[in-house]
Amino acid sequence: HPAALAVDAIASLGCEPMHMDDWGVDVLVSASQKGLMVPPGLGFVWYSEKVAAGRGAATPYWDWRPRSGAQELWRHWGGTPPVQHIYGVAEALAMLLDEEGLEAAWARHEGLAAATWAALDAWGEGGQGPRPLVADPAARARSVTAVHLPGAGRLRAWTEETAGLTLGIGLGAPEPSDALRIAHMGHVGAPMHLGTLSTIEAGMAALGLPHAPGGAAAAAAEIA
Q1: pTM score
Q2: pLDDT tens readout for residues 169-217
Q3: CA 202/CA 134 separation, integer angstroms
């Protein structure tokens, strides 16, 4: 059954790359849209033995323990199962684990992230253009890059209206109108991402936003 397969596969995903005990993390929450290529609507929770013993974040309103220890499939959900999402997650996990391979997916995200950073380095040469909000590449996420860019709000509007490209808003940024996010996770490959970066460069040129040329070419060189 796809739902049973999804539950088993999701449970196994976090074992190797995440080290909650070493990090001192008691509760870890993720979602179906975070690299799993499924619309928002499913939440995944991992928790420690301390939480399971009732000394942590479990509450009477939302107690994860009956769900994680469910003996019947329907008890995994808070009510009616989100059937379409379950089938979507089952297919996404098959794509990641059986077809592409999880390590290959990580490598793809790594390459697309590096291409994004190469473009930003080129555009930001001279200190006037866009720049990553996290200066140290080793500390950046491989899933999405947060960018500081004066006029980012205008750029987001231009790319959406002119090219049908939606860029992420600056969540939590000191100046949201001068920030954006470029995603490079999930079902994204080199053609899609190079198109995204080229559209961003076209938008900056159309709007006269400060930037040095050559970002899209630098990203292509990184992919090559």
Answers
A1: 0.81
A2: 988 888 889 999 999 988 899 999 999 999 999 999 999 999 999 999 9
A3: 24
